[in-house]
Amino acid sequence: MTQPTPTKSHVVLAYSGGLDTSVAIPWIAEKHDAAVTALTVDVGQQGELTGALDRARENGARDARLIDAKSTFVEEYCFPALQANALYEGIYPLSTALARPLIAKTLAETAMALGADAVAHGCTGKGNDQVRFDVAVHTLAPELRVIAPVREWNMNREDEIAYAHAHHLKIRVTPESPYSVDENLWGRSIEGGRLEDANVAAPEVVFDWTGHPESWPAEPETLVVTFERGIPVAVDGVRLDPVELVRTMNRRAGQHGVGRIDHVEDRVVGIKSRETYECPGAVALVTAHQALEALVLPRDLLQFKSSVDRRFSDLVYEGLWFSPLREALTAFVRSTQEVVTGDVTLRLHKGSCRAVARRSEYSLLSHELATYGTGSRFPQELAVGFIHLYGLPNQLAHARVAAARAAHAAAASSTDAPRPVLRTA
Ligand code: ARG
Question: How high is the pLDDT of residue 154?
């Protein structure tokens, strides 16, 4: 009887079509003696994805696949984040961070379906994305090995190009850009090159979705976003499916330069880095959502929710999307959204986006209570008694502290109190 030949390893690679993941195909095949399936997950990045698949096959991939995950991305990742007003460090809408777990999940599911034994990604060893990919795969499919060629090989850009030529790879010869860009429907991230100097203003060439400042309209524009239970469903009264709605917001807000973010960010691996983003749709939607919540949620819930929102944002950033805590926080957030229904008017102008009007059938604004005009039903005469009781504990505490300070001062100046020893000479 002949011995069965050991089955070759099969690796599913998260493939973007760029230089790193193109070089990764023959590199994995060689170093890991593996067949490589290239997988591109469409989360709304621009560029010619099907052409990239052909190149993957020509560069030695056994198979190349494209999975459209745009709706899932918006409905199951971006919108729950919007309901949590998710902004890492109060400023970054987490566009890259939200897409990574979905790409990792799709990668793991594809590997399992194909009977592959490993997955691979093109992340470096210095960023957050390796953490997000690895943790997600280890969580969802612990039996899969994770290969990260860029983390393992010691090649710079020139070495990679030389490797590509030596292996007769078809790579798209793009004019050399010093910037690393990551893009999806929730935003665009640009890092590297001159941006690494936090004291240098981002050059205009790094921006793509927000036009040149000279193209920003001189006149402000208003736009109405309609929400149902914390989910945006229409723009200016026109109902749109989730992907179209996000695209529309990116376009409308981007035209006015809204959503440029320049941030010194704290990475999971412990380093600070200067990051630049364009997230026009996400910034405008979070602004609108927060304005509507302020109208319909009571003060204590708003305050408590903001701490949940913050924790949620940190978890997403830190690669813990697939965690019991993130799921529990999402459930809490969702439970607050039943009344987050209504319209918010945004004013877009030269890079700024402000909520200027809002209405909801669940508004907690009561004209009868708040008005200074006629018809007020607020019982002002009760205010005196309320204020008296409200201020009573503070009045008492203040008196006690004053008495204690007086006693300490008297003790310090009395003769039998220990005196500080003064050194002479
Ligand atoms: N710093 C951002 C994050 O951790 C973006 C990282 C990816 N960006 C890139 N240009 N490759 O979410």
Answer: 86
Alpha helices, H only, 119-210: 129-140, 149-152, 157-166
**In the block, residue with structure tokens 């030389």:** 162
Q: Reply yes or no on domain 9-184 having CATH 3.40.50.620.
A: yes
Kindly tell me if the per-residue pLDDT of 47 is higher than 90. Answer: no
Residue from 359, 419, 351 nearest 202 by CA: 351
- Cβ 182 under 6 angstroms from ligand 1: yes
Catalytic residue among 57, 62, 151, 180: 180
Whether 100 is catalytic is yes
20 noted as active-site residue = yes
- Is 129 in the active site? yes
CA 265 to chain centre: 12
Determine contact, residues 31/9, Cβ cutoff 8 Å. no
Residue 358 alpha carbon to ligand 1 centre in Å: 34
In angstroms, the CA 213 to CA 204 distance is: 9
The active-site residue, picked from 16, 22, 129, 360, is 129
Residue nearest to atom 2 of ligand 1 (CA): 96
Residue 206 to residue 78: CA distance in whole angstroms? 24
pLDDT digits (tens, 9 = 90+) for 327-381: 999 999 999 999 999 999 999 999 999 999 999 999 999 888 888 888 888 899 9
In the chain, CATH 3.90.1260.10 sits at 187-368
Q: What pLDDT was estimated at residue 342?
A: 98
Residue nearest to atom 6 of ligand 1 (CA): 96
Lowest mean pLDDT among 4-13, 69-78, 200-209: 4-13
Domain 187-368 in this protein, CATH class: alpha beta
How far away, in angstroms, is 81 Cα from ligand 1 center?
17
The pLDDT, as a whole number, for residue 173 is 63
Residue nearest (by alpha carbon) to ligand 1 atom 1: 275
Q: Which residues make up the CATH 3.40.50.620 domain(s) of the chain?
A: 9-184
